[in-house]
Amino acid sequence: MASTDPLLQPYQLKHLTLRNRIMITSHEPAYPEDGMPKARYRAYHEERAKAGVALTMTAGSATVSRDSPPVFNNILAYKDEVVPWMREVADACHEHGCAVMLQLTHLGRRTGWAKGDWLPAVSPSHHREPSHRAFPKQIEDWDIDRIITDYADAAERMYAAGLDGIELQAYGHLMDQFWSPMTNTLNGPETSRYSGPLENRIRFSLDVLSAIRKRVGDQFIVGVRYTADEAMKGGLSATEGVAISKILRDSGNVDFLNVIRGHIETDAALTDVIPVMGMKNSPHLDFAGRVREATDFPVFHAAKIPDVATARHAIAEGKLDMVGMTRAHIADPHIVRKILAGKEDTIRPCVGANYCLDRIYQAGDAFCLHNAASGRELTMPHDIPKADTRKKIVIVGTGPAGMEAARVAGERGHQVVVFEAAAVAGGQIRLAAQSPRRSEMISIIEWRMSQCLALGVDFRFNTWAEAADIKAEMPDAVIIATGGMPHTEVLSEGNDLVVSTWDILSGDVQPGSNVLVFDDAGDHPALQAAEVLANSGAKVEIMTPDRSFSPDVMAMNLVPYMRSLQDRDVTFTVTYRAEKAKRQGDLIRVTLSSDYGSVNKYRLVDQLVINHGTLPLDEIYFDLKPDSSNAGELDQDAFINGKPQTIVRNAHGKYQLFRIGDAVAARNTHAAIYDALRLVKDL
Fold it and tell me: What global pTM score does this model have?
């Protein structure tokens, strides 16, 4: 029988039939090679296509012009050589019944001049965009003519590649820079037709759309992803946004509207457009629904819609025609397949950690914090194959590394026993999730626990495992995932006077009233502890020896912390170290030093909190080494290249022995999970 699920109903977009209402909106995971979407890029989209998504929108901001150099590793749509590569992507996805589109853009001022061909950025004003810092050239008439042609050329390339359509990016980029009164100061006689009243400010976009339609004809879908409300003083208003929506609809050259709300020229603004962990889900969904109601035209939308229930509501209530679940599909590419199978409860949840986006904004490639196979489809499996021979695997620890190892081993069909000293699973994630800011992190553990229980994994909680306990299980392989403990002995004197960020987060130590947080790791615990301290009413100073604070928290995750802390009595100090501490009456005198030269400074506080990573809890690993066949050795080439571990250093050894995650060295959740996946998938 045909499904009655609103999400599973087909949607007719002009001549194109989309098989359901779920799409992946345009995004750039920074996987291109030399600006081209090659094998890795194709595999990433194909994985989601074969799992049932109706439309995958490739390329967040494929650039159409040479003076629009990528701010991260975007597709270069201005090159003819992109055509065969995009044809391979399209063919691979079409084979699975998935439509394929691509987003085209000119970045305008949202780039840097010291990239690519070292051409100046161009914009309808000289105003610099704070995030990318380029002071642009004010656009001239010949620039406008040239860029319109570039758009049309790029669209024709995508048509030649066999895509189903394109969308044009019009928020924060060149198109929207024409629209917004904040960024359009054109006043010369040659460009005045593109400035002033709204009908002039949108003229550039209409000229681009007209040029594109002349190249690609009517049997090619063309849409616009745009802001219908900049939500800022002096910017594009919702009233103007609705007017623009109707102008685009009535142009005859647009087939769908992909609506966002907000502006993106700063980290804080971008985070409101694309909310992260601890922020409200689907904050702009109702607004997108109002645009659909006002236009009676196909409307798409995505912004932190992480769960099927919300997506289903968006379609059922007529707020959207197609719902974007982009980060959700990075976490689990098989969402549609699981809906079809009636297994929604097995969907790996997106926890909003934003490791994917924050990495690309720091010149990395996108990875999901807790799905190490996303973006690694060429080497890592999403579906774990069964092992040829069933083995007994013993795992110690239930943090992210241990839980992923248990899940993958269970999927392999092995007999799995897990020892855990605590009463519940979670490790450092359970500690992190104590903070409301990061409470969604616990889903990383809860999802794995549900998977493990369904696979028959045997958990032994409240058990401090000794080497004898492990050996008594007669395992074929032992995996140590015991994590680490805070490393606080970093002072030259007075280490007995410090507490760790863990002490503060767990509540084991009460906050002081005047606190110095020395952050020599740059990750979340320092800011989380600072929030706890500040919320208690304490005066807090966060100090780092680096030139910037919290670099591992990254841009968009930093925003909610700053909004919380800036209203409190919190000071941020860079380039200084806590060198030594000693008692001075009831206070602690902290002597400072600096990597940049000698200083003569100190602080008087009543609490000194240290954040300096962890040291491995590895005693049991070393106790087990002598009786292991590999003596604990990891074949790094096999580990890197996805091959089985076969090293034998002790012919009389009774089991293989490995350690993963922070039991090796302090890293992060993704590293721990990736360790587990690439080791255990071949055991």
Answer: 0.96
